[in-house]
Structures are given as structure tokens and as C-alpha cells.
Amino acid sequence: MKYGLVLEGGAMRGLFTAGVIDVLMENDIILDGAVGVSAGAAFGCNYKSGQIRRAIRYNTRFCKDKRYCSKLSLIKTGDLFGAEFCYHTVPEELDIFDKAAFEASPMEFWVVATDITTGKAVYHKCGPINYDELEWIRASASMPVVAHIVEVGGYRLLDGGISDSIPLRFMESRGYDKNVVVLTQPRDYVKKPASGMVLMKLKYRKYPELVRAAENRHKMYNSELKHIRSEEEKGKAFVIAPSEALPVGHVEHDPEVMREVYRIGRRIANEQLEALRAFISEE
Question: What is the reported pTM?
Fold first, then answer.
């Protein structure tokens, strides 16, 4: 029996996920593999490296730093979340990512990004952390319009949430029999068609398949929610989700708001802890 962890994205809603995975680590609940999308990849990698509280620590430390996330960064670099600062300076110099622990862990860790040429999801299994592996994580979290296209591994990539927002089916295809799914929207959330498609079509007019994927994202997302509910009814999925919409947007500069979202994740995880233990103990 293989147990997997599926981590949805959602930019700063991902701090809910950070709270959840910290509770899992504190209670020695380490699953066999994980897949992260966007913020789920950027914050979820700390689950494999075993670094409790790292995600909330560096986010609150740097949330007001213009190099981390700002309109100035977008104007100067083309990235709302500073690419070099967020994905290289922070993990390599300012809040060190434990590369040795990540490599030593037997857990598989996958990230999802979107191939801008095909509009399809690309699933990358992370190896020992180097510059390119950090670029894969950046690619997974590179929101369209406000981030540069990331070139790595022979691909040109953007946010994985465009093509596969909640990759439960992917984990099932990799042989994970039972999966814990961490959502950053409430259970009853229904995604609506994207707004702002005019700008998306203009900026990515050379990539019609990417635009088509963005236009159809709500259909893909809602279909994935339906599949998750079906697997949950079969006893093959365990869902952890906020009980109501999280009090945060894609961008947040108030550390107390960040801490509140993180605390909500911790609270929900603790409330479901015994049920989760029962789920992963069933054969």
C-alpha cells in the first residue's frame, strides 16, 4: 500500500497547506510520495526536507521586502514574485533549504508545471536540489501574465495550476493507492470561468494551446473536485480543506494575515488528525 499527498496551489492560500504539513511532520506522519502544484510545490517541498515552520517563517520575514513580491519587482524584472530572490537567494542564503535532508528522504516529490506550447501538464520528479531543480519549483508557481516563462528541462513552462490544479489522478497513475488531498478552497467551492482572458490572449497569442487551457481551467478544476469526492467515497482519498474561504488573496504583505491562514491550516489538520491516522492505517 502506497500513500500519497496531493497539494493544491493558490498563491498565499498555500500558507494553509504550510500549516497542514507542519502538523503532519510534528506528528511523524510522513507519506510515501507527494505532488505539489504552484504554492503546493514551493511550500510543500519542505515536507520532504522535514523543515517544520520554514514556509511560514520566510514568508512572514520577507513579505514586505520589495525583492520578494512587489509591483516594483514586476516592473523591474517582469516577475511579481522576484525569481532570483525567492527561488535562489532565500533558499540558498537567507533561509537555507536543507538539500541534504531532501535528498536523503526516500519520499518521491513531484512538481507540476504547464508546457506553454501544448497547454498540457508536465510532471517532474525532483532529484537532488540544484539550480535547475529550484527552477522547476519556480516554473510550477509562475503565474501567467505576472511571471516570466521558465525554461528548464527542454520545456517552456508556466504555473501548473493551468493544466492540472489538483493532480490526484496523476498520483493514482503512479501507483499511490490512497492519497491525502490538501485543498486551499472550501469543499463546496465551484470554480467559475476565468476573468482577464483578454490580457491572457494578448500576451500569449503565440501559444493558443496555453490560452485554451486557461479558458477551460474551470472545467478541468471542477472535474477534478468531482473525482476527489468519488475517491473519498470509496475510501481512497482523505481531504483536508478550509471550512470557509481563506482570508487572503494571491498577494499578501501583512505577516499577521499570513499567520492567521497558517493557523487555520494547523487547526483543521489537528481536528482531523485522528481520522487521518485511521485512514493511513487501513489496509
Answer: 0.97
